[in-house]
Amino acid sequence: MILEAASFDLSSTLISGQCFRWNRVEAGKWRGIVRGTVLSAHQIDGLLHTAFESPGGMAEAGSEGLRYYFDLEQDYESTIRQLKGDPRMDSLIERCGGLHILRQDPFEVLISFIISAFNNILRIKRCVQGVARGWGDSIGDSGSGEFGFPTPTALSRASEEALRACGLGYRARYVLESSACVAGLGDAFDSLVDLPTGELRQELLRFPGVGPKVVECVLLFGYHRLEAFPIDVWVRRAMCELFYRGRETSDDRIARRAQREFGATAGIAQQYLFTGFRTGRGERTHRRPREVV
Fold first, then answer.
1. Is 125 one of the annotated active-site residues of the chain?
2. Contacts of 40 (CB under 8 A, 6+ apart)
3. CB within 8 A of 61, min separation 6: which ones?
4. What is the pTM of this model?
5. Dihedral sign computed on CA atoms, order 167, 171, 172, 178
């Protein structure tokens, strides 16, 4: 299936720290598991070439589902024009152009970013894969080795010991408790999507293991609230260097500054800051920090 995606860059989007079930199989070619479906994708110029390697929710949704997932209908070009009005953002946008915010499953994002706390991307991916393998449904043939992300009910039935064995460490308890909370809410969890961002933030903060950074990630990557602004070690470094002349400052001040500078599309700016600095393409002047997200 071929989709027009002139302002979209597949690789920049998939390395931007917002998803953990995509892997590069060779230069420019990717393979991922999205909503219980194995999907392969690569991009040639402005065309996105995709193929469903298994049945599942994404395969049933077809091209419309793909356009929704990759957020191809969003007017990113106008957002980029606004961001490029700030010379501090110009080089990041030129070098990391085409970043989109994927439209992912909120429960998978919630659990993935609870796992992400004080963790690096490679380990997060391994942990998420272990959780899927342990409690998710097998995709396609029983021997394929691919698994969808577990349902809240299935994951709530895990043991803390088994989750720790997947590498989750102290996060295992939070994953178990939050999964039980979501399972207990049932349809009420799905209805959270209808809440205004402020109310949604407060509801998400009730889940075990969800703090200020994780909640912003869930808002941005799970609920597509583009005004959300997750602050991790890379974004903190970027904001301090670009907006505070290298001086350390608090996350609260950074968050307020981000809202003043970027407003309703702060989350898109955050992706450029994160990806540009993490991949070594930002104008860093200090020692590279230990990678955590």
1. no
2. 25, 29, 30, 31, 32, 50, 51, 53
3. 68
4. 0.91
5. negative
pLDDT digits (tens, 9 = 90+) for 153-163: 999 999 999 99
147: which 2 tokens? 């698994």
Distance CA 189, CA 269 (A): 28
DSSP structure class, residue 192: G
Q: For each of the domains in the chain, give its residue range(s) and CATH number, in order of start.
A: 2-73 (3.30.310.40), 106-223 (1.10.340.30)
Q: Which of 29, 84, 125, 213 is catalytic?
A: 213
Q: Judging by DSSP bridges, how do beta strands 37-44 and 47-52 pair with one another?
A: antiparallel
**Within the chain, where are the H helices?**
10-14, 57-69, 76-83, 87-95, 106-115, 121-135, 152-156, 160-165, 171-185, 187-190, 197-204, 212-217, 223, 233-243, 251-262, 266-278
Q: What is the pLDDT of residues 18-42, one digit of tens each?
A: 999 999 998 889 999 999 999 999 9
Structure tokens at 209: 């293991």
